Amino acid sequence: MPDRAAGGMRRHDGGAGGGGGGSEGRQPRTFEIWSFAFAFFLKYKWVNQRAAYPGGAMTPEAVSQKKSELAVWLREGLCRLGPTFIKVGQQFSTRVDVLSPEFIRELAKLQDDVPPFPTDKAIEIMETSWGRKVSDVFDEFNRKPLAAASLGQVHLAKLNGQTVVVKVQRPGLRELFEIDLKNVLALAKIMKRLDSRADGAARDWVAIYEECARILYEEIDYVLEGHNAEKFQANFAGVDWVKVPKIYWKHTTNQVLVMEYVPGTKINNAPQIDTLGLDRRKLARLTVESYLQQILRHGFFHADPHPGNVACDTENGGRLIYYDFGMMGSIPGDVRRGLFDLFYGVYQKDVDKCIEAIVAMGVLVPGGDMTAVRRTGKYFLQQFEERLESQRKARQDLGDKYASTYKTPLTKNEQKQVQKKILANIGEDLLITAADQPFRFPAEFTFVVRSFSVLDGIGKSLDSRFDISEIAAPYAREFVLEARPQVERLQEDLKKRASLQVYAGSDELALCGKKIVERLESGDTKLRARALEAERALARVEIWQAIMISGLVASMLINAGTALSLHGARAVSTVIFLGAAAFGCSALANVLKLRKEKKKEEAITGIGAKVVEI
């Protein structure tokens, strides 16, 4: 029996109860949210700032373990807080630019499987939306929910003899969102003030909140979801291996969505797929190809392609079925052109062209020390080329044993060796880049990265030899060849390069000089002698100064407060003691900051090294 039904929700075989409506008062709800946020903040600070266990130094493995435990606590707490925070947590599971891997892994497990709300309430919502009785619309209506999720539930029905899925929004969601998101916005504003960005990540918490709020409100607009489904279907018109359920617009409103019933098997259910006689390797390839088409051709992609939203059936020798179009992403034309230029730059091993493409996409903000970014990019391009060459050689030498031998995951020790190699080569450049914070990651990019991670997991569950890069590489080449206007532009670029090669030597030096002058004029490059160790030492001195000043002021206030207290001015002395405590906390915070900076420098550079740059 198929284990998936249209509608983008999990099966739920029973249970009753309400959902996340707006029945809770505003004040108790606000208290619940802030209590949870404050508890998490304290736990996070405790894990982050503990320098040692009672028995000795805290190892990186121990830190990771503590973060993993806190991530589990966070996930369970978000589930208790209900629909808004489940969805916010799911969105943050895509933010690799904000959260550490331990939190990303745990939040990715967030499930919004909750008990269904009463069917009578669902019928009331439908009849209010339509202004008609359910019995006047459907030939049959199954009162037992087929599936339930945090934002709604689905029922099966018969419409003019056709089996359809009726998706009904959970009552009170909009009111709940308004209460919850006001509190989330307040938290985001506080985080924007408190976040020291000591790890080098550029985070605009208010912008992140705005993106989360936009997506949440879009997910409860079923008319928009219907239009998304139709646009997605139109993009795959003529592709017989992709199926999108048909929308019945006559009965679709903001709170009710009626669509075709298309049952299927979850895309990662390998045993059931084998039972159906389908080619698992082919399905893995089609899943990735469909997503590459969405990204590179359509610029409109499914932002949540987890196994619950992608299924398959036996039509046409194996067909993909997409569900749930509430969360979609769009890639503007200039970003897609930037992706094309990036592919071309990687193909040509041209780091400058890669950087230009990344700047054009808005991911890299020009300025600061672009020399460090350029060297870092050059290093990774070289490593990428070496990896491809290693793969080609291994495929020739190992043959059928390639998957089981070459693709064996690295051990922890091997991963450490790789990390040490990277730091030994570009550790200083990574430190400079972290200080300048030139990278910005639009939400669409985080969804794309997360989606490819999910697809990689799906592919490996279907095919042990699955390698997403092997599927993507030829597809990207085909995409490059089809982009005629840009190909012609790049051909002109190649002609210019060929002409320059003829006059190598003095002309090349002149061109190099011209580039340097242009960069100097634009402010992109600065002539400077940069002693990194001296800069870091100066930063440490500044922190020490702050510690000493805070400590001195705190001691003076303590003395003054003690004197006033002895003379009976207890109210004034209490205020002064509170001020002393504040300065003491400031001194302690700077001590922790100094320790954190030292650890970060040691992790990135190992030892101090002086570098002179142009």
UniProtKB/TrEMBL annotation:
Organism placement in taxonomy: Eukaryota, Viridiplantae, Chlorophyta, core chlorophytes, Ulvophyceae
Top-rank taxon: Eukaryota
Biological processes, Gene Ontology terms: membrane lipid biosynthetic process; regulation of response to reactive oxygen species
Similarity annotation: Belongs to the protein kinase superfamily. ADCK protein kinase family.
Transmembrane segments: 572-592
Positions with biased composition (Gly residues): 15-24
Protein name: ABC1 atypical kinase-like domain-containing protein
Keywords noted in UniProt: Membrane, Transmembrane, Transmembrane helix
Stretches assigned to the ABC1 atypical kinase-like domain: 109-357
InterPro entries: ABC1_dom, Kinase-like_dom_sf, UbiB_kinase
Region (Disordered): 1-25
GO CC annotation: membrane
Protein source organism: Ostreobium quekettii
